[in-house]
Amino acid sequence: MDKNTKAYYIKLVKFLADTLGRNYEIVLHDVSEDGANIAEIVNNHISKRTINSPLTGIAMEMIKNKTYLERDYITHYKTSDENSKSMSGSTFFIKKDEKLEGLLCINHDTTAFKKISDEILSLACIYDNPNDEVENKEYIKLNLEELIKDITGMSIENFKNKNLKPKEKQKIIASFYEKGVFNVKGIIPKVAEILNISEPSVYRHLQKIK
Q: Transcriptional regulator DauR-like HTH domain location, by residue (predicted)?
């Protein structure tokens, strides 16, 4: 995303936040060949994310799967954060000649509305089915270690202490690649640190996968 385009969308982020109110978190992701990062975020009291936070899992999946080639935007997918807030997410793909340059995301915190609706439904003895599956459910991770923990199923401490063989490390890197982890800007040094290998080694593993 060039400087002028980024400046334009940053203004739009602030406009949307002022218009929609504090229950709407507006996030601008800048996507480049080096990866993706948050360029602007307003009303981040909702997710507690910052400019330095990684992309969410669903954002990485959309970039990895090139969803933007088939659709201009996706609206009203269900999402939640680590504090189990109920939210609704929407993403607009910023493109130039079918090349993805950014993501404009709106996360609506519907926790208060859900609480009121639950109270009304309980008064009428109407309850949600706890066994219902929710599609496109997204858990917002506040840092890269939590994201990696989510993918591997291991705590970072156990992950770092495990004596992994080269093939195991390559398998993990392949899993990260499939999940779109490497679309996050600045992820290579973090992966190298956690796997206890050099950054060039991570690049070599990626070359084998690609």
A: 157-206
Q: Which residue in 41, 31, 37 sits closest to 67, CA to CA? A: 31
pTM: 0.67
Place of tokens 């690049």: 203
Task: Identify the three-state secondary structure at position 73.
Answer: strand
What is the 3 state secondary structure string of 106-125?
EEEECHHHHHHHHHHHHHCC
Model confidence pLDDT, tens digit, residues 2-32: 999 999 999 999 999 999 999 999 999 999 8
- Residues 25 and 43: their CA atoms lie apart, in Å, by 5
Question: What are the backbone angles phi and psi of residue 122, rounded to the nearest 5°?
Answer: -70, -35
Residue 171 CB-half CA count within 13 A: 6
Distance CA 210, CA 205 (A): 9
